[in-house]
Design goal:
Strand content: 15-25%
Strand order of the largest sheet: 10-9-8-7-13
Largest sheet: 5 strands, antiparallel
Number of strands: 17
Low-confidence stretches: 218-225, 351-397
Number of domains: 2
Distance between the termini: 18 Å
Shape: globular
Number of helices: 14
Helix content: 25-40%
């Protein structure tokens, strides 16, 4: 989440780079986000300062619109329950329903629910423990980092928000998550299991009889330069699909096309466990959450709202006292108005406004500045909810 100080710094940088004294250097802003999610992390023990508390906020933003259409959850009852959690005001019926989700869920395909933890150390411990329980030798896949930035520390910092890890060790039966969109059915967040390691040629020649034990484990020698993980992913319709996961690329690119930093790595991460922070923005069909570990405002909402339905959600140690929302955020959202009201103020139609704002898969807030004159230059960019991604965008623009 972007804090107020960072927003002010970005605004000042924009004015300086564009040599333009108007707000944000004259750049038109369309900003989406949800302040009810994880708050900004203050530095040096300071009090968290939201973006709407920034000094430049009122001069840059002239319209704030509350979006209400939910895309991740199709069940209206579940969506209502999550909205109560988002606001930090749970009804007795919602509390009772969440407590009933404290049960084990068995999946026939053997792919377990991803457990969400509050800290990275808990995630690493859970994933490492699961890996140690698997037989066989692990295959290591090391990323290749390149780019015009040659300083290794600076390049590493630029790539710090990249989902692809510098190194990942995998075994047959490792549970993994896809972190790149492949097509409509295999997307960022798809869960699967490693069923073997093979080269692209082996994959093309693989017949109906499948793989031998020798092939599953990469042959007699471990050769990651030629063999890649073969993953069987669980589909929403109950079927499965195999994909040979070869390296993909993540880039930090300037508007002029210069690639400052790039990482080439297989598009997988271990997925027995994820941090709530890393899961923010993900859609998960199978989720397990222990609310006894939750400590931050908005954390319980972020964790549980990753689930698409109650049937795929397991909640341990549900405690309504852990469901907290920031009072300052509540006050901010009370000042928002609808897309229809925005259309009246902008002198356009509601359809025009909602077309531009309903691409977000979760509830969000659209904040915009009136469009500049017809002949002026407009630059549009997205600020991600992840603060590291925002710092990258600030460097780009």
């Amino acid at each position: 989440m972007v804090d107020g100080d960072l927003f002010d710094k970005l605004e000042a940088i924009a004015r300086q780079i564009r040599n333009n004294g108007t707000s944000f250097g004259g750049i038109q802003l369309i900003i989406t986000g949800d302040f009810f999610q994880l708050p900004p992390v203050p530095e040096g023990g300071k009090i968290a300062k939201f973006a709407f508390d920034a000094n430049a906020w009122t001069t840059c933003i002239t319209h704030t619109i509350g979006l209400t259409q939910v895309f991740r959850q199709r069940d209206p009852e579940f969506a209502r329950m999550l909205n109560e959690m988002r606001l930090g005001k749970l009804s007795p019926e919602t509390i009772a329903t969440f407590r009933k989700l404290n049960r084990s869920i068995e999946y026939e395909d053997g792919i377990q629910a991803t457990e969400l933890f509050s800290t990275r150390s808990e995630v690493d411990n859970a994933n490492n423990q699961k890996m140690r329980q698997l037989p066989g030798e692990a295959m290591r896949f090391t990323a290749s980092d390149t780019g015009t930035i040659t300083d290794p520390n600076f390049r590493t910092k630029l790539l710090s928000s990249c989902m692809a890890p510098p190194i990942i060790d995998l075994k047959v039966h490792s549970q993994v998550m896809l972190i790149k969109n492949v097509d409509d059915s295999l997307v960022n967040g798809s869960l699967g299991r490693v069923v073997g390691f093979m080269s692209e040629k082996m994959f093309d020649l693989m017949g109906e009889e499948g793989l031998s034990d020798r092939e599953k484990h990469g042959g007699s020698t471990i050769d990651t330069s030629q063999r890649w993980p073969l993953v069987q992913f669980a589909m929403l319709d109950g079927t499965s699909r195999q994909l040979l996961c070869q390296p993909e690329q993540w880039k930090v690119e300037l508007p002029n096309g210069e690639i400052q930093a790039a990482r080439s790595q297989i598009p997988l991460i271990l997925a027995w466990a994820l941090s709530i922070h890393k899961a923010q923005g993900q859609t998960l069909e199978r989720v397990k959450v222990d609310l006894g570990r939750v400590f931050e405002k908005g954390q319980a909402y972020v964790a549980l709202s990753r689930a698409t339905c109650k049937e795929g959600l397991q909640v341990l140690r549900f405690d309504e006292k852990k469901v907290m929302a920031h009072e300052k955020v509540r006050q901010f959202y009370n000042s928002l108005y609808t897309a229809t009201e925005a259309a009246k103020r902008l002198g356009t139609t509601a359809a025009t406004v909602t077309t531009a704002t309903t691409t977000k898969k979760t509830k969000a807030t659209l904040l915009s500045k009136p469009a500049p004159a017809r002949n002026s230059r407009t630059e549009v960019f997205e600020i991600d909810s992840d603060e590291d991604d925002l710092r990258y965008n600030s460097a780009v623009y």
